[in-house]
Design goal:
The complex is a heterodimer of chains A (about 90) and B (about 180).
Chain A lengths: L1 H11 L13 H11 L5 H27 L23
Chain B lengths: L2 H24 L2 H18 L9 H28 L8 H5 L13 H11 L4 H12 L4 H8 L3 H29 L1
Helix pairs in contact in B: 1-2, 1-3, 2-3, 3-7, 5-8, 6-8, 7-8
Classes of the chains: A mainly alpha (about 90), B mainly alpha (about 180).
Chain lengths: ~90, ~180
């Protein structure tokens, strides 16, 4: 009995909640945010998405082609007339 | 009627409703103001798309419920990312760092209401929404059904389950309360 009464009291404790107000300047903040958030046209979104896909496709094609071709541009070993020793020791 | 005029009208008509419903979900004024801001930005941006066949009140309520739930989810996911933890099944993490004292509670009910909100916050999302809209906002079941986009019988069922869970959990709390006494 005491238990049920206590549970009912707890459940009813929120019945007397007072209504609170948000701060006065909130409307200004909302207007600023709403007008700042300009929506982007769907055509623009699709154009950007298509450009990105095209860019990725071109890059992939270049990578795949460069892997298939043998590397013909092997540079001959450079012969230099370096008078200094190769280990950077000065003595 | 201009968009600006209509928006101002909606804001002054529903700002208390939006702010206080958000407060029931997050229990602190800073977060409730952030949700209120999100709700009215959404209202401002989609006011021209609003279907005049449904009520503005219901529409604003629905946006507020969704914004509040999204806000809590967003806070939880940020927290998880920060601690690199795994995803939890409940939304209780958000409340673990906040207190459960509703800012609108009168002093004599503070302790009991803190207990009530700590238990409400453990309810599943739909049950919590159905309970808050019915018990704290005083809405009828048909109104809640429209807001939640569910059938009236589904709303009734959610409320019954919510009350049952609350009574069960409060029953456990009563044992602790009696031991302390």
């Amino acid at each position: 009995m005491e238990r049920d009464q206590w549970i009912d009291d707890v459940l009813n404790s929120a019945d007397t909640l007072s209504k609170l107000s948000p701060r006065e300047s909130l409307l200004q903040d909302i207007r600023k945010k709403a007008q700042g958030n300009t929506t982007v046209d769907a055509k623009t979104v699709w154009a950007v998405a298509a450009s990105i896909i095209l860019l990725i496709a071109l890059n992939l094609r270049v990578i795949v082609n460069s892997d298939q071709k043998p590397d013909k541009t092997i540079m001959p070993r450079m012969q230099t007339d370096n008078p200094f020793s190769g280990n950077n020791q000065l003595y | 009627m201009s968009q600006s005029y209509t928006f101002n009208h909606i804001y002054f008509e529903y700002r208390l409703m939006v702010f206080n419903l958000a407060l029931h979900y997050v229990l602190n004024t800073e977060d409730a103001e952030e949700i209120t801001q999100d709700v009215f930005v959404k209202v401002y941006q989609s006011i021209n798309d609003f279907n005049s066949n449904s009520s503005i009140k219901t529409w604003v309520y629905r946006i507020t419920v969704n914004a509040s739930i999204d806000f809590i989810k967003r806070k939880n996911s940020k927290k998880r990312f920060f601690i690199f933890g795994k995803k939890s099944e409940s939304e209780n993490e958000y409340f673990s760092v906040k207190n459960t004292e509703h800012p609108g509670v009168i002093l004599e009910n503070k302790e009991k209401s803190a207990l009530l909100f700590s238990v409400i916050n453990t309810l599943p999302e739909n049950q919590r929404t159905a309970f808050l809209l019915s018990k704290l906002e005083g809405l009828s079941n048909p109104e809640i059904a429209v807001i939640m986009e569910a059938s009236i019988s589904a709303v009734e069922s959610l409320q019954v389950r919510a009350k049952k869970t609350l009574r069960q959990k409060l029953g456990e709390k009563f044992e602790e309360y009696r031991r302390k006494k």
